[in-house]
């Protein structure tokens, strides 16, 4: 099972690897800048924690690269079962922070199971879709939805982790579309979505926490309460706009260090970066994410089997959704739903899960010439 030969080194996807390393290093620089205190000599330790997690993430990537990704298909059911069990445990024994119960503690280690569940979910769906033949009809789609999506969605919604809940839903339907949905199913889904939107929206609204409702209200009308519920979005726009074309320069931003921008090192890390590096730097960062996404799609196209293709597509869709939603949040064109920027936002569990996911992508591309075993 564990075997590395010279051909794997020769075919290693250095482009994807260099891209995620570059983004992660930019993230560490941005975290250092966002959490520094100009008035104090003692600096925040958060960026050093992120550096440590970067090395842990590299170790996780190396482990994933050490075996053929086809083994993920063979253990997909135990992985999915374990992932759901962890989500259930979080619901009853999770650690609460910032109004949400999303974390588990194992001694000194605190982690967020939902971050790993996204990849587990993609592995399970890819495993099942790889064995299907022909277009997916309505009955098959409903079975897949209730078996793989419904229960995890409820568990994530109850934490509440609305961002991850929405992401797995988007990933699920994106993978189904890529695999091949019957045309009548697509039309019916669109019609059902239009008709049921007011009812589903009302049900979800009643289940949201007050701070989540305020975030949605602030998205619809940021000026309704600019010093209250609209503060996050308004300060994010100020930070991005003040960067102008070339930016203020590294460590010369003010919105993050002077605490004007809430969640500056997590959800709004892009705003901190844009203030210091401006339009030019933001365009460069976006080009790195675009390269990662395009490379992921090309990896799916060149995968040696259907499982690898669906797995690569699912991971790429995940990175794509997280990138566009997070940047959209900072620009005020998407509601603030607590979605981090992949490889950049502060968070050890998120960084580790991102590196493992990228490791799977690299694994699929690296082993595209190998035979099945």
Number of domains: 1
Order of strands across the biggest sheet?
A: 1-2-3
| Alpha carbon gyration radius | 21 Å
Distance between the termini: 9 Å
* Whole-number mean pLDDT: 84
Helix content: 55-70%
* Beta-strand percent range: under 5%
**How would you describe the shape?**
globular
The main sheet comes to: 3 strands, antiparallel
What quaternary form is this? single chain
Order of helices and strands: HHHHHEEEHHHHHHHHH
What class would the helix/strand composition place it in? mainly alpha
Compute the number of helices: 14
Strand elements, count:
3
Low-confidence stretches: none
Mind explaining what this structure looks like?
This protein is mainly alpha-helical. The chain has one domain. The chain has 14 helices and 3 strands. The longest helix is centred in the C-terminal third of the chain and has 34 residues. The model has no long low-confidence stretch (mean pLDDT 84).
Q: What is this structure's SSE topology?
A:
Elements: H1 6-10, H2 14-35, H3 46-65, H4 70-74, H5 76-93, E1 95-97, E2 100-106, E3 109-111, H6 113-129, H7 138-158, H8 162-179, H9 183-207, H10 210-220, H11 231-242, H12 269-302, H13 306-331, H14 348-366
Antiparallel strand pairs: 1-2, 2-3
